[in-house]
Amino acid sequence: MMEKNAKIYIAGHRGMVGSAIVRELERQGYTNIITRTHKELDLCRQADVEKFFAEEKPEYVFLAAAKVGGIVANQEALADFMYYNMTLEMNVIHSAFENGCKKLEFLGSSCIYPRMAPQPMKESCLLTSELEKTNEAYALAKISGLKYCEFLNKQYGTDYISVMPTNLYGPNDNYHPTHSHVLPALIRRFHEAKESNAPYVTCWGDGSPLREFLYVDDLANLCVFLMNNYSGDETVNAGTGKELTIKELTELVAKVVGYTGEIRWDTSKPNGTPRKLLDVSKAESIGWTYKTELEDGIRLSYEDFLNNPMRAER
């Protein structure tokens, strides 16, 4: 268990996940939280990361820093996604190990699982067949981080764990028109369509893929729960165990935003993986379940979008 005054470092505290973990730790009464902005500490610079860990000696580390993006961003910058993510995670995990960190939690993504994995996807299906090509670079980097934690445990007896979230959304999301994930992209698109009285909105693919979504504050709650209650080499899936089609999702976002025009589908654009549902029975068996239903979460996300004009514009 983490002591309330333990020194806790959150890598990536300005991102959606990292900021949610900071909120959750503060809510639970943890008082010694360490953060560094990218300007203060570039996690891709090994010497700088080593110096930071040697000076600060954090007892616990949440590794939520990553270069992330949707289908377009992943396809356009395969090399960048692989280099940036693999470099930063190796630097942080290795420096944590070198400086006696008690426990580290590595945040991954459900895209690590094979494209055609049996559904719902169990943690044990990792590396059983080929990955989805549209985000292969990102997935390979995340698998490497997960495996490095596992191998440190096996070779040196560390207590490093990993958690693999499904599609996330919520406060502090990225609403970029082309480089964001599907749910924040839809929030922005429908909001702008409502503002401009656009007669229709065009969405990618045919709307048939099935997706699962987890509110980021629920993930943060699980992250702290796992840090205090779980040890093991195998990762832990983070999700709701519920799915809906992209078509159903677009209709739900339109409803929350208040857009009443037509929704059209551009079938020349890729769908991505046909289905991505996590088996969440492991997290449930440890004693955790999600709290926020999707429509409530989308409403909270839309409020965040409206109340943060700088984020909404980027």
Care to describe what's here?
The protein has 314 residues and is of the alpha/beta class. The chain has a domain at 8-169 and 213-241 and 276-292: 3-Layer(aba) Sandwich (Rossmann fold), CATH 3.40.50. Helix content is 44%, strand content 15%. It has helices at residues 16-27, 46-56, 71-76, 78-98, 136-156, 182-196, 216-229, 246-257, 281-286, 294-307, 309-313, and strands at residues 8-11, 33-34, 60-63, 103-107, 160-165, 167-169, 200-204, 210-211, 213-215, 236-238, 244-245, 262-266, 275-276. The strands form four sheets. A six-stranded parallel sheet has the order 2-1-3-4-5-10, with helices on both faces. Helix 1 packs across helix 7 (216-229) and helix 6 (182-196) crosses helix 8. The model has no long low-confidence stretch (mean pLDDT 93).
